[in-house]
Write a structure and sequence with these properties.
By secondary structure, this protein is α/β, with parallel strands linked by helices. The chain folds into two domains: 2-19 and 231-431, UDP-n-acetylglucosamine1-carboxyvinyl-transferase, Chain; 22-228, Alpha-beta prism (UDP-n-acetylglucosamine1-carboxyvinyl-transferase, Chain), CATH 3.65.10. Helix content is 32%, strand content 25%. The protein has 14 helices and 24 strands. The chain has helices spanning 22-32, 48-59, 97-106, 125-133, 164-175, 190-201, 233-245, 261-269, 307-314, 335-340, 370-382, 392-395, 402-408, 421-431, and strands spanning 2-7, 13-17, 38-42, 63-68, 71-75, 83-84, 108-112, 137-141, 144-148, 156-158, 180-184, 205-207, 213-217, 225-228, 249-253, 273-276, 280-284, 293-295, 320-324, 344-348, 351-355, 364-366, 386-390, 412-417. Strands 22-23-1-24 form a four-stranded mixed sheet, sandwiched between helices. A four-stranded mixed sheet has the order 2-15-17-16. A four-stranded mixed sheet has the order 4-5-3-14, covered by helices on one side. Strand 10, helix 5 (164-175) and strand 11 form a beta-alpha-beta unit. Helix 1 (22-32) runs parallel beside helix 6 (190-201), helix 4 (125-133) packs parallel to helix 5 (164-175) and helix 5 runs parallel beside helix 6 (190-201). It is globular. Bound molecules: ligand EPZ. Residues 23, 26, 93-94, 117, 120, 122-127, 161, 163-166, 187, 189, 234, 304-305, 327-328, 370-371, 398 line the site of ligand EPZ.
């Protein structure tokens, strides 16, 4: 089992370049198979969830070719089956975008029910509502979502809650449905806009993405395109919080500052310095930061995917802070691990009450999920002594070259196989 070892206490200083947005890339890769022509996608992050989805489309017959490190060519012209029933697919959430994409193109799909991070119950009723409204019959059978339609017809759909996944999935199918689909109470997150832009570059007709009403006029078919994915707002946010937590000074490059506004506002409120440039952001902090109240909300509110990193920073800030999680009920699992490092946090229902402590101390902790794992790395960077973060495979689902990027900023952080005790000893001797 691989783990990170971190010697805390060093400020992170320097520059880091943000990769493409994993959550946009997942939708875009699924959408890419909706044409028989070749699609070239740039700025594809090299993370586990993306590799799994690329493998899945490859295994149903799509041609997938890496042109260089972050550019992938996909051709869905040779797809032989709509049956995406592979064990490895259950490990990621976004495999369900293949339901919308294949249903749109072939009017039929069978995809293994999604897994992904265990951060809450994560129902898919709104996805099913969308497909059924377009005229599909949807069944859950033998662990598969099976969707089938003679023809898809545009519909007026009012989602019961704002769901990123249901909005994207229904938008995918609606692109190739007959007539106009109107999605109301649609999610507004930046990756919805990116996926809509991508589909439009393939010949789709989508308007209103980024607002809560999206209009999709169905077209008979989509064509090839070249497209570059937007930068990852969560990776950027994680480095912003790592800069503040380590009392460092980082220039974070390849970002869209507008997508980071909720994090910027909170960092400034607690006393960090944030400077925005056209496509970069600089975060600096000195001394103890202050306390605040945070509630996770849908975009443009404070993103649930940044809640663990925020709570971790507040664990060593002055005074008492309150963090409320309103999207996923199970997203405080990392708090027990933080407590083992000396944090004083009480979780009551969906709220964490954080009493800032003077310092954290290194310990062996285990990543419970992707963002909780990233937060534990930030904790390790702040802590006195050595921290071991186990289960790094969760973190690698969504962060490209995480330890390398941290090392470039001066962090004493390496990845080891837990069996390799010699290497671990050597690292400890080297960094003292
Ligand atoms: C997406 O998950 C992201 N995943 C998540 O990022 C992110 O945390 C989440 O959106 C919220 O921003 C991807 O983009 C692949 P939702 P998704 O549907 O689509 C409820 C990360 O760390 N709901 O917007 O699964 C649901 O229970 C990951 O990168 C229903 O009730 O989230 C939740 O309370 C983790 N019925 C709320 O809506 C449904 O059919 C929002 O979920 C669907 C959702």
């Amino acid at each position: 089992m691989e783990q990170y070892i971190i010697k805390g206490g060093k400020p992170l200083i320097g520059e880091v370049t943000i990769s493409g947005y994993k959550n946009a890339a997942l939708g875009i890769i699924a959408a890419a198979v909706m044409t028989d022509e070749t699609v070239t996608i740039e700025n594809v992050p090299d993370v586990r969830d993306i590799r799994v989805l690329l493998q899945a489309i490859g295994d149903i017959g799509a041609k997938v070719e890496y042109v260089n490190g972050d550019t992938v060519k996909i051709c869905g012209g040779l797809i032989q089956t709509v049956d995406v029933d592979f064990d490895y697919v259950r490990k990621i959430r976004a495999s369900y975008y293949l339901v919308g994409a294949l249903l749109g193109k072939y009017k039929s799909s069978k995809v293994a029910l999604p897994g992904g991070c265990n951060i809450g119950s994560r129902p898919i009723d709104q996805h099913i509502k969308g497909f059924e409204a377009l005229g599909a019959a949807v069944k859950i059978e033998h662990g598969l979502i099976c969707a089938e339609a003679e023809e898809l017809k545009g519909a007026h759909i009012y989602f019961d809650c704002s769901s990123v996944g249901a909005t994207i999935n229904t938008m995918l199918s609606a692109c190739l449905a007959d007539g106009l689909t109107i999605l109301e109470n649609a999610a507004k997150e930046p990756h919805i806009v990116d996926i809509a832009n991508f589909l439009n570059s393939m010949g789709a007709n989508i308007k209103g993405a980024g607002t809560d009403v999206i209009r999709v006029k169905g077209v008979p078919k989509l064509h090839g395109t070249e497209y570059s994915i937007i930068p990852d707002q969560i990776e950027a946010g994680t480095f912003m919080f790592a800069a503040a937590a380590s009392k460092g000074d980082i220039l974070i490059k390849n970002v869209i500052p507008k997508h980071l506004e909720a994090f910027t506002a909170k960092l400034i409120e607690i006393g960090a310095d944030v400077e925005e440039f056209d496509d970069a952001i600089r975060v600096r902090a000195e001394g103890k930061l202050g306390n605040t109240h945070v509630k996770t909300l849908i975009y443009p509110g404070f993103l649930t995917d940044m809640q663990p990193q925020m709570t971790t920073l507040l664990a060593v800030s002055k005074g008492t802070s309150v963090v409320t999680e309103s999207i996923f009920e199970n997203r405080f699992k990392y708090v027990d691990e933080l407590s083992r490092m000396g944090a004083s946090i009480k979780v009551e229902s969906n709220t964490a009450i954080i009493d800032g402590v003077d310092k954290l101390t290194g310990a062996v902790v285990s990543a419970p999920d992707l963002r909780g794992g990233a937060a534990l790395v930030i904790a390790g960077l702040m802590a006195e002594g050595f921290t071991i973060v186990e289960n790094v495979e969760y973190i690698e689902r969504g962060y490209e070259k995480f330890e390398y990027k941290m090392q470039q900023l001066g962090a004493d952080m390496v990845k080891f196989d837990s069996e390799d005790t010699k290497a671990i000893k050597k690292f400890k001797l080297k960094v003292g």
